[in-house]
Amino acid sequence: MPRIGVFVCHCGENIGATVDCAAVAGACAGIPGVVVSMDYKYMCSDPGQNLIRDAIREKKLTGVVVAACSPRMHEPTFRRACAEAGLNPYLCEMANLREHCSWVHEKGETTTRKAIDLVRVIVEKVKRNRPLYPINVPVTKTALVLGGGIGGIQAALDIANAGHKVVLVERDPSIGGHMAQLSETFPTLDCSQCILTPRMVEVAQHPNITLYTYSELESVEGFIGNFRAKIRRKARSIDMKTCTGCGICMQKCPQKKIPSEFNAGLGMRTAIYVPFPQAVPNKPVIDRRNCTYFKTGKCGVCAKVCPAKAVRYDQQDEIVEVEVGAIVAATGYEVKGADFFPEYGYGKYPDVINGLQFERLASASGPTLGAMKRPSDGKEPETVVFIACAGSRDPAKGIDYCSKICCMYTAKHAMLYRHKVHHGKAYVFYMDIRAGGKMYEEFVRRAIEEDGVKYIRGRVSRIYDEDGKLVVRGADTLLGHQPIEIRADMVVLASAMVASPGSEELAQKLKVSYDPYYFLSEAHPKLRPVETNTAGIFVCGSCQAPKDIPETVAQASGAAAKVCGLFSNRELSREPVVAVVNRLPPPVYSTCVGCFLCEDACAYRAIEREEIRGRDGQLIRTVAKVNAGVCQGCGTCVALCRTKSIDIQGFTNEQVYAEVMAL
Amino acid sequence: MEEFEPKIIAFVCNWCTYAGADLTGTSRIRYQPNVRIIRFPCTGRIDFMLLLKAFARGADGVIVSGCHPNDCHYTSGNFHARRRWILFRRLLDFVGIDVRRIHFAWISAAEGAKWAEFVNDVTDTIRKLGPFEEYRKLVHMGFDPIEVA
Predict the structure, then answer these.
(1) What is the pLDDT of residues A527-556, one digit of tens each?
(2) Which residue among A96, A99, A636 sits closest to B45, beta carbon to beta carbon?
(3) A521 and B110 in contact by Cβ < 8 A?
(4) Out of B28, B29, B45, closest to residue A635 by CB
(5) Mean pLDDT of the A561-583 span
(6) Please, which residues 92-131 of chain B have a Cβ atom closer than 8 Å to chain A?
(7) pLDDT tens digits, residue range A610-648?
């Protein structure tokens, strides 16, 4: 006979205020097999857990049901408590009275009745739970970091400095990411490249880091501790071993009119190019879409002038396979660009630029060498309008969220402009100023008070060209929505930050969830900010949500710490939620008839064939067998097995049918 | 007369819809209390005989929900569920069971609001349809879906 204990948690007011917990405990006491049923204010607290532990010992419980929050929250807590009292942890399950009941329904009898139903279902399930034992798997102590921006660099260095191997994959020809493009950083105004490039070099020289630039993740298989990733190394058309990075090819390349990605389209580059002078690795790449040789078959200048004979037109993409134990996604963001702001004329007027383009204008290494010259005619702009929240916080644009960094970088831009053009006028249109952070508010104050930047609270409706001036029309909401017009020479849009292109495919390859904006989802918004719901895969930086540099670095170090924590184990124990094919005494052996439908359905190739032989070695039957090390426990095979011979531990047919029958 | 309150059973996957329903809770979005969630590792695990069993046990409506296509935590379980669903729905239609009583949705872990909306819609639909007596009568007459299968 099962002896089940039911423990109903009030979760303070969270459950107790809506559900009559005492009534639930009372009703559950009447379920056959339940020998103890009680309610308590905070079941997860130490005294709460003691109630469970004592009950297990005193009442010799064979199963525990904790009716509290979501099992995704506290199941490990309660299972541990059960294990401490000598009960197999897999005999403990949770009924979700908080997220699925008290938080979503009104107070009342109906809600309490639903709560009782939910507990009853789990009681019926637990009656049929069997003791299970975790499966041990080895850990490959190598981490894969995706993205070579500041987040990826920080994570890679932290993991590598802890003594583990790291494979860093970057899609572009150089690491550095957007931070390499920035001029100066808020709130200290220190030069971005000066603090970033030493880190980039450190990555390149670190003995524990293998760097794959101009490469992309092709596919991932496996599970925590044992991933196998395929990386596509795109053909660089250069032999990296023989190239010395002398740069003669770039000087001689006749194709010189390609908009430079690094300069956000404000400068030009050649078809064989190094994205920027401090690039790591500092070796060129041929942009095959724009190279004359690849377009027409004629040219070949770079190959002729190369003193090291390192140009390889026939180079092919190469697939490298790596085995890693953990993956950190740090794929960053991009800013919304052309055709997103027709009303602001972005893409139509060359002097309407976005924040990244302004960074390049202000940067000493930029196309103007740091001189404030507007893109259209190279004149110094006398009046510049900065528009914050361009696209962000705008449901009409489909971006409801705040891009978080724009308030700060707009203040920085206005300040930098005023430092460079002392007689210039800087106006900022803003909705709110969100300057939460150390020295951030002071920084914005400084822009307004010391550098004389005019802040106008209101939004811009339209920008149009009139006699060579950009007329910015908006409203000043602090002056009673008074219409306002500014005749500007240049407009800078603090355009919305969005997840970098390909985030959706990346999330699907990694099997992590993502939000409607394609930002990767963390496992818990507060308590597990760098983990994902897929064990062994971590996130950092603005691929998770918009963030500034300090936050990205902090999160990257957090992800690195999690990876190192994972790597400190020689073996990992995995949840024993895996499929099993039944075995019975002879002459039946198994109810499996060997149709192997499961073999085709299994996405992990976990189904093996086992030959059952008699004592004389004669083959009796071939039946399916599950490789528990490979099985991930989805249960697809269970649902399609025609003879119900395969079952999944923790969600057996017996259990789930009992659950349905209990309703 | 008291208004009919339908009983709806939701079969959901652990990774997307269960987490999505958790998010509905954390976001405190209210919805109608008629639904009872049963957790599965994956929609691919859901044996559709369970749905018939649910009807036999007095459910008036059934929900199956999991990860969006390509987002399955187990790569392809939701595709198996989708195929099975299409067949199952046609079969129900063929034998004369009102398919408005079964509902399928893709709801991700980030779509808490969508879960609330979906549950409300389904509940309203089923409430209009009234209790599912026909099927229960069949069961009383000795038609056991499990036996038939």
Answers:
(1) 889 998 888 999 999 999 999 999 999 999
(2) A636
(3) yes
(4) B45
(5) 91
(6) 108-111, 116
(7) 998 888 889 988 999 998 877 888 999 999 898 999 999
| SS3 (DSSP) at B120 | helix
Which pLDDT band, with edges at 50, 70 and 90, does A303 fall under? very high
| Nearest chain A residue to B52, by CA | A660
What tokens does A422 get? 């002392």
Please identify among residues 64-93 of chain B the ones whose CB lies closer than 8 Å to any CB of chain A: 67, 70-77, 80, 84
Terminal CA-to-CA distance of chain A, rounded, Å? Answer: 22
| CB nearest A636 (choices: B57, B70, B80) | B80
Could you tell me where the DSSP H helices lie in A128-223?
A: 150-161, 192-205
Coil vs helix vs strand at A29? helix
Q: Please give the domain boundaries of chain A with CATH numbers for all domains.
A: 4-127 (3.40.50), 142-234+317-332+500-571 (3.50.50.60), 248-305 (no CATH), 334-498 (3.50.50.60), 579-661 (3.30.70.20)
Domain presence at residue B144: no
Confidence of residue A451 (pLDDT cuts 50, 70, 90): very high
Number of domains into which chain B is organized: 1
ipTM field:
0.92
**What residue numbers bound the domain in which B29 lies?**
8-134
Pair of tokens at residue A271:
């078809």
pLDDT digits (tens, 9 = 90+) for A14-64: 999 999 999 999 999 999 999 999 999 999 999 999 999 999 999 999 999
Question: Chain B partners of A70 at a C-beta cutoff of 8 Å?
Answer: 18, 22, 25
Mutate to test the interface with A, among B65, B74, B139, B144 (most CBs of A within 10 A): B74
Here the tokens at position B79 are 């595709």
Cα–Cα distance between A415 and A362 in angstroms, integer?
11
Per-residue pLDDT tens over the stretch A452-483: 999 999 999 999 999 999 999 999 999 988 99
SS3 per residue for A180-205: HHCCEECCCCEEHHHHHHHHHHHHHH
